[in-house]
Give the backbone structure.
Amino acid sequence: MTRHYLMCRPDHFAVEYAINPWMDPEAGADREVAIRQWEGLRGVYEELGHRVSLIDPVEGLPDMVFAANGALVVGGRVYGARFTHPERAAEGPAYLEWFTSNGYTAAREAEFTNEGEGDFLTLDHLVLAGTGFRTEVAAHGEAQEFLGRPVVSLRLVDPRFYHLDTALFPLNGHNVAYFPEAFSPGSQEVLRNLFPDAVVATEDDAVVLGLNAVSDGTHVVINAEATGLQLELKRRGFEVVPVELAELRKAGGGPKCCTLEIRG
Ligand SMILES: CN(C)C(=N)NCCC[C@H](N)C(=O)O
């Protein structure tokens, strides 16, 4: 099925502050390389037949390339992001403004801190929601009320996996791949109960942000370095599309981080 993705070209990308353990401002990042890698990802989506819309990057917002954090869109309703760190705060209104000026009238400015699809991942009948580092539990309730979908809270415990989408991705509408150790014992149990047939990833694949992947139910767009996970996905019948995004990983992001799915 054709998907609709919102992306933001990394024209102002830089690693100039550290708000997660992947970021080292001393080492920085090469913007030209990041743009080339990002263009590769955008090209992959277009080759797969998906629709890609673009939001204008804003100078002074070096993390704006990580569009997944900008909002959560389900059934045409847009739940806006409210960022944890002041460095990213202006991205919330910028993304919300894109949606309202593109005809999404059911758009809500969030009352509680949440980082959009970074911590909310949508399946057919429920939304999985991360907390522990960025998104507040109160935002899970706010999203449930606004979207009318059950929201299941999951607690993240490893700072390397500070967003839910660094530790888990939906394979399709009813199953997921995830790295168990990124979650609290209770949340691991919830995941085992909900998804007995899940793909369980190793730490080797998780530390190259292999779980920050985008599946359309048939193809999985995934960081090239996550080779073990790719083999398992192929064994399960998925078509794996590896992408090279190492420059963006220096800010703590991968393919999913660059991709906000617009549903409905
Ligand atoms: C879902 N997305 C977008 C992510 N998981 N992460 C990207 C955010 C990276 C940024 N430096 C930050 O720390 O906020």
